[in-house]
Amino acid sequence: MKRLEEYVRSIPDFPEEGIIFRDVTSVLQDPDGLALAIDSLKEKLKDIDFDIIAGTESRGFIFGVPVAYALHKAFVPIRKKGKLPCDTISESYDLEYGSATIEMHRDAVSPGDRVVLIDDLIATGGTIKACIHMIEALGGKVEKIVFLMELAGLNGREQLKGYDVDSVIIYGGK
């Protein structure tokens, strides 16, 4: 069987020269790659006691929901501003060229809930840090943060100091 890294398509000079884009769609398009990705994320959680998996729009949904299903846990979607129909909590954060706001339902996490965050990629860490702020504001505790891929050259883990962070694949560059 192939290693997960072999399913990830690397595209040089995208979106700009000198950048290697790590394309997760090639993992999703292969049944063995998708199964390996989900199983690898589940493996990272084998010794963690938690109640809820939360994932960010949209690839955090793609990977978080099957893990939640397989482990019989609830799933909480964290979405772009304006996409959720009920009372929400929001958090804004900086992007490379601007800012963004994400939201989650205010009743999605209760005080004392133990939460795992799952996403496809950590780059600078801003999105996940915003997720942490919302979960903690609602009284939840982030038990672990798991990524399929990490771009270590962008130092995203620095934003997440004090949290249990794990990645299935770690790329040294940007």
Automatic annotation (TrEMBL):
<dbReference type="GO" id="GO:0006166">
    <property type="term" value="P:purine ribonucleoside salvage"/>
</dbReference>
<keyword id="KW-0328">Glycosyltransferase</keyword>
<dbReference type="GO" id="GO:0003999">
    <property type="term" value="F:adenine phosphoribosyltransferase activity"/>
</dbReference>
<dbReference type="GO" id="GO:0044209">
    <property type="term" value="P:AMP salvage"/>
</dbReference>
<keyword id="KW-0660">Purine salvage</keyword>
<comment type="similarity">
    <text>Belongs to the purine/pyrimidine phosphoribosyltransferase family.</text>
</comment>
<comment type="subunit">
    <text>Homodimer.</text>
</comment>
<dbReference type="InterPro" id="IPR005764">
    <property type="entry name" value="Ade_phspho_trans"/>
</dbReference>
<dbReference type="InterPro" id="IPR000836">
    <property type="entry name" value="PRTase_dom"/>
</dbReference>
<dbReference type="GO" id="GO:0006168">
    <property type="term" value="P:adenine salvage"/>
</dbReference>
<dbReference type="GO" id="GO:0002055">
    <property type="term" value="F:adenine binding"/>
</dbReference>
<feature type="domain" description="Phosphoribosyltransferase">
    <location>
        <begin position="25"/>
        <end position="160"/>
    </location>
</feature>
<comment type="pathway">
    <text>Purine metabolism; AMP biosynthesis via salvage pathway; AMP from adenine: step 1/1.</text>
</comment>
<dbReference type="Pfam" id="PF00156">
    <property type="entry name" value="Pribosyltran"/>
</dbReference>
<protein>
    <recommendedName>
        <fullName>Adenine phosphoribosyltransferase</fullName>
        <ecNumber>2.4.2.7</ecNumber>
    </recommendedName>
</protein>
<dbReference type="InterPro" id="IPR029057">
    <property type="entry name" value="PRTase-like"/>
</dbReference>
<keyword id="KW-0808">Transferase</keyword>
<keyword id="KW-0963">Cytoplasm</keyword>
<dbReference type="GO" id="GO:0016208">
    <property type="term" value="F:AMP binding"/>
</dbReference>
<comment type="function">
    <text>Catalyzes a salvage reaction resulting in the formation of AMP, that is energically less costly than de novo synthesis.</text>
</comment>
<dbReference type="InterPro" id="IPR050054">
    <property type="entry name" value="UPRTase/APRTase"/>
</dbReference>
<dbReference type="GO" id="GO:0005737">
    <property type="term" value="C:cytoplasm"/>
</dbReference>
